[in-house]
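User: Um, what's this?
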Amino acid sequence: MTTVLAIETSCDETAVAIIKNREVCSSIVASQISIHQQYGGVVPEVASRQHLETLNYEIEQAMESSHLDWSQIDGIAATCAPGLVGALLVGLTAAKTLAIVHDLPFLGVHHLEGHIYATYLSEPSLNPPFLSLLVSGGHTSLIYVKDYGIYETLGETRDDAAGEAFDKVARLLKLGYPGGPIIDKLAQTGNPQAFGLPEGKISLPGGGYHPYDCSFSGLKTAVLRLVQQLEKEGKEVPIADVVASFQDTIARSLTKRAIACARNYGLDTITVGGGVAANSGLRKHLQAAASKHNLRVLFPPLKFCTDNAAMIGCAAVEHLSRGRTSPLTLGVHSRLSLNQVMQLYEN
């Protein structure tokens, strides 16, 4: 049984968790949404300062609620990439300090690998290979999980991530921040077939379209033009119908690519991770399509869709149990391919 205390500070959630194998002993998350709402998005400097103010208290809370002491902790982990550099540094420095003070191994964890491991927390018997659809505010990717720590990116967005598109459309319609939960709630009262919006496609040099890559910037622009046209005609903009059509287009686009990718690579399981994994439209479309093709789709619990330290700890437990640790000289990276995960454990 391997037990790890993990810290996640890659963006605007300050999180600490203690994980024993794939079991959550404690998970503390402090969201900064209310702080950043006034700016319409995350302000990196503000996020970093908030992490500094919150982290020590959360570490204490995580230890207390786990009913464990430091002698029962086998390692300390923190997200080291990708993310906001200042925010990452807060968590990484705290983790290194704890590792030194308590003479414990240290592990730097890739944020996207954490989102893959979020599903392991609710499906502890899950094993590779499988396909992972990662959809968040900063990433939209189809990842072939070949083995523990071995990944191949098969498809990704060429511009806006899915979550980013939600935020931008919400801003366009003056709905507030973050856009995903607001649009999802409104979409449930609208007609998803009210407006035919274009599904972004990526052309291939030799003709045809990329089967797994996606694009959402054109969809965002189409919503803008739709609103402008309605206003020009003096019509009231049916917000619920607009966002329902927008959300449905994204859900269909992601579903089509995920199903095609899984079938073409002979994979019978699709896991979904990231904040957009909480979207009801995506869940409905993907589960319905997967059922038709006898595929299994696994969504993590809603509390593990958004950024949290439990998923980081779960990934760290797997690496530590295989004898992998990170050097204390490891730095942070604003960008780092998931394919480079094993470089984080080269001592």
About this structure: DSSP finds ten helices and ten strands in the chain.
